[in-house]
Predict the structure.
Amino acid sequence: MARNPPPNGTVRTRRSRTDIRRALLESALIEFGAKGFDGASTRAIAQRAHAHQPQINYHFESKAALWTAAVDHLFGLLAEAMHGLVLRQPTDADVAQLGQTFADGIRRFVSFAAEHPELNQIMVHEGTTASDRLTWMTRTYVQPFFNGIGSAWQRLLEAGIAAPIDSDTLYYVLVGAASLPYVNASEVRLLTGRDPSAPAWIAAHADGLVAILLPGLETG
Amino acid sequence: MARNPPPNGTVRTRRSRTDIRRALLESALIEFGAKGFDGASTRAIAQRAHAHQPQINYHFESKAALWTAAVDHLFGLLAEAMHGLVLRQPTDADVAQLGQTFADGIRRFVSFAAEHPELNQIMVHEGTTASDRLTWMTRTYVQPFFNGIGSAWQRLLEAGIAAPIDSDTLYYVLVGAASLPYVNASEVRLLTGRDPSAPAWIAAHADGLVAILLPGLETG
DNA sequence: TCGCGATATTATCGATCGATAATAGCGTAG
DNA sequence: CTACGCTATTATCGATCGATAATATCGCGA
């Protein structure tokens, strides 16, 4: 709510270019996630960032450019959250290790979906209808994830670790099952009275997904 | 595209009240599903139904009333698709039968999600933010499904048939995993080159969900 | 401290939104 | 065949949309 004063003690009445851009990006993610590209208004985005509507066109080129920048930012955060996860093992020797890595990836993805529900909200908004935004987002960001998960899944299938689901279907089963409680957090609270962002929910959710998707995983 | 002439052979230039209302409802489902309540425009809804925009306010009270009527219609179709499924068995004697019934329910739900992706699209659009629409839809239609699935799941858990997931989480894992390929059908086509509405996809998808959610089910 | 470039703020444009009044025309009852 | 009720169509309202021009103000360099 209140801005932190800069560390040197001078009272700053204008935010730096970096700060205002970041504030607009994060506000845009929330609004685009909640209402989709068409439904979100630049005035609401600006207001949430404590800025004025024309500042969006000043700091970004247009509403569309803001959307693109926001999605760039968001997939950057996802890449950060997945950093160090190597699904393509250099050798086929230890497939069990790939299984552990995949399980780790599931847990990280569930945590990310809980912390940043905007990602899957936006993907659901865009994924329903063909558009330039969907094509760009799919080719730029989703395809690599899809391919990486698919090839790892294929090897886990052959090793008998993975549940009997083909890799195309697995991707949507995984993403859908991992993200829906956080995408629809408002509904979860109405329906269950529980908070899906609670650590206990997230941990149980991730454990459940690992259990059903990787039944052949060695525990311990 | 072209309307069928009525069976008596007279050329009808006006559709009956029933026909135009139904056309508007089905058009509304597609538009609300694709863009959400705010993003969908009454002009686009009317045009898709080969009608004029003011006819929406004539045949329904308002955009909000149209949305409500469309959701009523859609949950009616879901209830039809689930007709005869009794998850609450009168006796605990044969829990295996409950498992088979649950599996049947999963298959029917996957088929319905494929045939009517608008349902889950609308639920995802509304489920992100608290609103009167969400409260009404949840209390009126979702809660009974949620409760029925939850109590059945509890008994399947105790019988060792169900995967180790608590019933609150199970609901979202099931719905998310069952619906995402059809909610995001456009993305599926871009990403996989396959058509998720194809019977082969639907069958494999449903079989996969049954396998991972009910590992203790007797096959055959 | 002064001046200028960068950013903020206000005002406003044309387009589109949902809604409604006014008019036109179809179709059946009598 | 006429007349009237129901539905379709057109026109238009105030509100809001994204975008931009015009103006005001901040804050750093000289």
Residues 132-158 of chain B form the longest helix (27 residues).
